[in-house]
Amino acid sequence: MFVIKDTLISLDLVERFFACDLNVCKGQCCIDGDAGAPLLEEERKEIDKNLDKILPLLTPGGKQAVEVGGSAYYDCDGDLVTSLIEGCNCAFTTFNSDGICLCALEKGYREGKLPDLKPSSCFLYPVRLNKVGNMTAVNLHRWKICKCAEKNGEKLGIRAYQFLKEPLIKKFGKDWYDELERVAQEWIKQKDHS
Question: N or C: at which end does the chain have fewer Cβ atoms within 10 angstroms?
């Protein structure tokens, strides 16, 4: 584990290879699971503020889920999460012509129809953040559906922290990421020589 500023960083983030391979997994992380995507209260407020622009981008099931149950709910652990379609897909999922699951919030942003509303937990995935006292633990969530991303990362020589550069900088800042990169490179170099 590494400590940078007020974060505790899992070795998995530095050592594991990872690069999403949507052609293989089809975006399954937006479909599988027992709850919606973790959401910050301020993210829910922004989503709710833009619902009139979001609803036309959703599937009929997603639109109904949001209209009936709202954009988010508290799961059994008491965490705020995105609404689900019949207990399965995130309400904000859409599918392209190849059957790949995409986030309607991200798609809308890329098409200039929405501000940047994608939840930070989705942008950072497979990183999960947890509070540990006054520190934030930065852990890599490992899940069987992401096995193809691990294989793809290994094939391409991309480690998880490298793949997640943009969302990590957005969350923690460029100075933090530069320090992570420096520490990671030193760690990998030492590990390779031992």
Answer: C
CA–CA separation, 105 and 185 (whole Å): 34
DSSP3 helix / strand / coil % (the chain, rounded to 5): 50, 20, 35
pLDDT at 97: 83
Question: Would you call 39 helix, strand, or coil by DSSP?
Answer: coil
Exposed/middle/buried for residue 186 (C-beta within 10 Å: 0-12, 13-18, 19+): exposed
Which structure tokens are listed for 190?
Answer: 């030492």
d(CA 23, CA 15): 24
Cα 15 from chain centre? 19
pLDDT digits (tens, 9 = 90+) for 36-87: 888 999 999 999 999 999 999 999 999 999 999 999 999 888 889 999 998 8
Strand segments (E) across the chain: 2-4, 7-9, 72-74, 80-82, 93-95, 101-103, 127-132, 135-140
This prediction has a pTM of: 0.85
Phi, psi of 192 (to 5 degrees): -65, -30
Cis peptide before 38 (omega within 30 of 0): no
Instruction: Tell me what pLDDT residue 134 has.
Output: 94
